[in-house]
């Protein structure tokens, strides 16, 4: 089955700095790569996703890049703010199922 | 647009008991997936329902079962509860079209504690 590795497991940045979280996947047929943000005690919420026919997608301060050859994709958050503090999960599909990484706890220090 | 709703929000059960969790999918969605999220971990796929049939199962034993109803709502049943079943159970709905994946929209989850 699909295997998704996510790192780092924890990340602390100063407010205003950038944060990068990386994921690797194993199934070369995977074609959809979402990122979810989960605040403490809340549901995971989709923040950005990318399909395999593009290499990069941006939405304001958030971007995702995809390297299909190397089978990895990354989440980039620029100009981080305290409200960006949360756990972030990447995911990769196997058939119609999503396999999630173990998560990255991002702490933005004011 | 109505989001994904789950009930109950919290539940405490004793080892060996049975539990039923409920989920109403987001309007317009036809697929429901269930995930188990242990503390500090990512969501683990339990199974998915599409057109009222199970469509894929993760590494969970048969005592985890489910249903999907004609209105696309769903139930997750767990028999013979074990202590390790204590977790947050998340329901997610999505719209399956002809092919490819679509975003999952999660409910707030049911926090199950087994004592």
Keywords:
heterodimer; A: 110 residues; mainly beta; five-stranded antiparallel beta sheet; B: 115 residues; four-stranded antiparallel beta sheet
Write a structural description:
The complex is a heterodimer of chains A (110) and B (115). Chain A contains no helices and eleven strands. Chain A is globular, with a radius of gyration of 13 Å. Helix content of chain A is 0%, strand content 59%. In chain A, strands 2, 4, 5, 9, 10 and 11 form a six-stranded mixed β-sheet that branches. A five-stranded antiparallel β-sheet of chain A has the order 1-3-8-7-6, with no helix packed on it. The mean pLDDT of chain A is 94. Chain B has 115 residues and is mainly β. In chain B, a hairpin with a 2-residue loop joins strand 5 and strand 6 (53-57). The mean pLDDT of chain B is 93. The termini of chain B are far apart. Chain B has strands at 5-7, 10-13, 19-24, 31-37, 44-50, 53-57, 64-68, 74-78, 87-94, 105-106, 110-114. In chain B, strands 2, 4, 5, 6, 9, 10 and 11 form a seven-stranded mixed β-sheet that branches. In chain B, strands 1-3-8-7 form a four-stranded antiparallel β-sheet, with no helix packed on it. In chain B, 0% of the residues lie in helices and 50% in strands. Chains A and B meet through strand 4, strand 5 and strand 10 of A and strand 4, strand 5 and strand 10 of B.
Report low-confidence residues of chain B grouped into runs of 5 or more. Answer: none
List unreliable stretches of 5+ residues of chain A: none
Quaternary structure state of the chains depicted: heterodimer
Strand content of chain B: over 45%
């Amino acid at each position: 089955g699909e295997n998704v590795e996510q790192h780092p497991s924890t990340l602390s940045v100063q407010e205003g700095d950038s944060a990068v979280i990386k994921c690797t996947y194993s199934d070369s047929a995977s074609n959809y790569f979402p990122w979810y943000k989960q605040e403490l005690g809340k549901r995971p919420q989709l923040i950005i996703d990318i399909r395999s026919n593009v290499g990069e997608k941006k939405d304001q301060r958030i971007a995702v890049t995809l390297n299909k050859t190397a089978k990895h994709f990354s989440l980039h958050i620029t100009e981080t703010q305290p409200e960006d503090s949360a756990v972030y999960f990447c995911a990769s599909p196997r058939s119609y199922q999503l396999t999630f990484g173990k998560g990255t706890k991002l702490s933005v220090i004011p | 647009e109505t989001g994904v709703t789950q009930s109950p929000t919290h539940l405490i059960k004793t080892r060996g008991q049975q539990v039923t969790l409920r989920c109403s999918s987001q309007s317009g969605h036809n697929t429901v997936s269930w995930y188990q999220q242990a503390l500090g971990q990512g969501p683990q796929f339990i199974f998915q329902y599409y057109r009222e049939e199970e469509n894929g199962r993760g590494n969970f034993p048969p005592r985890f079962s489910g249903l999907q109803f004609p209105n696309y709502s769903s139930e997750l049943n767990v028999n013979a509860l074990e202590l390790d079943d204590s977790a947050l159970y998340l329901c997610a709905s999505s719209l399956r079209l002809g092919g490819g994946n679509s975003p999952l929209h999660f409910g707030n989850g049911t926090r199950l504690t087994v004592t």
